[in-house]
Amino acid sequence: PALFTLSGNKLLMAGGLSGGGGIATANSYIYNYDTDSWSAAAVMPGAVGNAAYAKTPSGKMYVSGGYSHVGGTTDTWYNSLYQYTEGTNTWATLATMSTNREWHQLTPYTSGGNEYLMVTGGDQSQTFATVLRSTEAYNINANSWASTGNMPGTTNGKKSIHFAYFPTGSNAIYAFGGNGGDQKSVYKYNISGNSWAATTSLNQTQYNNFTSSAVLLDGRVFMICGYYGTDFQKNAEIYSFTTPVTFSATGTNNNFVFSLTSGAGTFYEKLRTFIPPYPLTGGPSRVTATDANSHSATADVNY
């Protein structure tokens, strides 16, 4: 089901698959933390499960696409988009996507002062036999969709997409993992250039739709592997949105002291790792290595 935070220590849960056979529900419920109780909310315009959902920075809540085994006999995929308004406890039906899909991602982003939603990948089968590389963007102000092209990949490189993210202050959306043969790939969408390109891949290959992810406070993404082959995996890693910079310092001894000499961010000396600020603003930052005899080398980290 879709899950949103509301005001007053409350959560909204909407849709999902109920009972056996993959039959979707349109019911919505509100959970109150303070009273530890549930109450019925407005019913969605349509019953969907395996839908994507997102809340924009301005607080608007959306549910897109999804699936249901209608009547227990017919697999059906949807291209719907619904918006929930907390103040009136109402749902509205908005413009539909060009492609029916489930297991996709819905990512809010801003461009030119306007709010958008990006849909990446998805599927049109219950066995991931028809996964999608297509993407499209929803203009919230205009209530309209536009194609944003296909993600890269070969015929074996289709993507249902596990996770998509818009780093605050950036000009890009990153699409991670997914089902379809290239589960460790990361694709980057250039918003101003309206183009997709492959970027630095994940280290592990088991990042499918059963993976768990979280955005850390410094803007990096923490990912735990999901189900792969015939078993669940235990691998995890952290993904940073900057390109690693390596450099060497020459001197008469190797006992270098590393420091951040200009710019923002955090330098972890023992790990020899620099993490840029979040949001990604104010670059570049300069890291300096100095030995006991005052020999030094510097590297600038651009972001």
Describe it:
Helices cover 0% and strands 46% of the residues. It has no helices and 28 strands. The protein has strands at 2-6, 10-14, 17-18, 23-24, 28-32, 37-41, 52-55, 61-70, 74-85, 90-93, 105-111, 114-120, 134-139, 144-150, 163-165, 172-176, 186-190, 195-199, 212-215, 221-224, 227-228, 231-232, 236-239, 257-262, 266-268, 273-275, 285-290, 296-301. Strands 1-2-5-6 form a four-stranded antiparallel sheet, with no helix packed on it. Strands 7-8-9-10 form a four-stranded antiparallel sheet, with no helix packed on it. A hairpin with a 4-residue loop joins strand 13 and strand 14 (144-150).
Percentage of residues in helical conformation? under 10%
Q: What gyration radius follows from the Cα positions, in whole Å?
A: 22 Å
Sequence stretches where pLDDT stays below 50 over 5 or more residues = none
Q: What percentage of amino acids are in beta strands?
A: over 45%
Brief synopsis:
With 303 residues, the chain is mainly beta. Helices cover 0% and strands 46% of the residues.
Topology:
Elements: E1 2-6, E2 10-14, E3 17-18, E4 23-24, E5 28-32, E6 37-41, E7 52-55, E8 61-70, E9 74-85, E10 90-93, E11 105-111, E12 114-120, E13 134-139, E14 144-150, E15 163-165, E16 172-176, E17 186-190, E18 195-199, E19 212-215, E20 221-224, E21 227-228, E22 231-232, E23 236-239, E24 257-262, E25 266-268, E26 273-275, E27 285-290, E28 296-301
